[in-house]
Amino acid sequence: MKRQTKDSIVLGAALFAMFFGAGNLIFPPAIGLTSGDKWLFSLLGFFITGICLPVLGVLAVSKAGGTISELASKVGPKFSLIFGSIVVLAIGPLLAIPRTGATVYEIGVAPLSSINPIWVSIIYFSVTLFFVIKPSGVIDKIGKILTPILLIVIGTIITAGSLHPIAPAVASKLKNAFSYGFLQGYQTMDTLVAIVVGGIILASLIEKGYTDSKIQFKMTTIAGVMSGAILLMIYGGLMFLGATMGTSVTPEISRTALILKITQAALGPNSLLVISVAVSAACLTTSIGLTAIAGDFFAHVSGGKIPYKATVIFVCLFSTVMSAIGVDKIVEIAVPLLVIVYPVAIVLIVFNLIDPLLPYKAMYKGAVLGAGSIGIIDAFKALNLDFINTVFEPVYKIVEYLPLSKYGFAWLLPALTLSLAFGLLGEYFAPFRSGFTKADQVGIALTTTDPE
């Protein structure tokens, strides 16, 4: 086997481990349950936001220079700082880290014990803090052991459940299963994780001696396809199992209770301990990794003014409180933030990948403004507060008339339109604006002259 091929396979395994956390278990079955006989259409939408975008995110960050700051810097340095901070907070103490703690309680502890969830959170995040403050190779070794074990457990559940389905998938009342799966894919937050830690993949390749950018891109692409294929099989299997549970559970069942029901149906009542231990340990490795990322990020962007230890202590304390509210409540809270951040992240990923084809870097600003504006409107709608709905009802109706809005792409036309407008206006007014030279149009001096 060629060295490049072997290293690409190793990289693909690492990429899969980076994307696949225990939290990813809870969404596909729930999507399948809601989608019923339309689960394949939901899988297609979920495939785009839950698999394709994270892989493209890694490629875009690698091409941009290796950090989320460089990915967003073409919009402006202040935007880069704000966007990077929001993303790190989202995959950190606001959403993803507390969700790991809540998942540990609901899947790993509650089925086996009646202990109060707050005590589980305190113990869980104390262990997280111990490993984060005193980094040790032990947790990395545990992660390398646990990922294969978790995969074997999930693979066994999917195989057993597929060979002996509980019931045929029931007819679904979903109007648009594709859009539902597409938007649910936001909840994995893997795209946000990808654009934060994508630089690790690039650094790994450089460390192995691959300095040619074309070879780096090729190897990362191979690794991405490999990890994406594994994720697709797992997500598809779990979604199918969820679709076959429609006659056995109520639609109101929680996401964590559903995966436990599926496990029991596939492997028997004594299987809960196996899935509980595997999921809990996998959650811990994810929590430790994301907490360390948050600490490193804010220490770096503040020039050391926000100490690493202070950040990780705050993250663990805040997450302890947040995790006690439960997985479903955290997922509900996440929606308004994710519908703002994801369209902007998608624009930045796509534009960085096609950067050589963009004649004017001002196009980045227009695209982000267009996508972000619709995202904010969608966030207000997701809050579902009466006084906000009353004020914004006319705006909601306008957004519904935008092309592809029913598929979750209402932001696409505004992003493209403003991107073209900013590019053309930048070209037209360039000779008359001080500080906006031809160099700005090709992106050489934009970040130093722009007030952003």
Automatic annotation (TrEMBL):
| Name of one Pfam family that matches | Branch_AA_trans
Question: What membrane topology is given?
Answer: Multi-pass membrane protein
What does the UniProt record say this protein does? Component of the transport system for branched-chain amino acids.
For this UniProt record, give its keywords in alphabetical order, as a comma-separated list: Amino-acid transport, Cell membrane, Membrane, Transmembrane, Transmembrane helix, Transport
Describe the family membership recorded for this protein in Swiss-Prot or TrEMBL: Belongs to the branched chain amino acid transporter family.
The portions of this protein that span the membrane are 9-27, 39-59, 79-97, 117-133, 145-166, 186-207, 219-241, 272-294, 306-327, 333-354, 366-388, 408-430
**What InterPro entries does this protein map onto?**
Brnchd-chn_aa_trnsp_Livcs (IPR004685)
Taxonomic source organism: Fusibacter ferrireducens
Domain of life according to the entry: Bacteria
Q: Where in the cell is it found?
A: Cell membrane
Q: Which PANTHER family match?
A: BRANCHED-CHAIN AMINO ACID PERMEASE BRNQ, BRANCHED-CHAIN AMINO ACID TRANSPORT SYSTEM 2 CARRIER PROTEIN
Q: What is this protein called?
A: Branched-chain amino acid transport system carrier protein
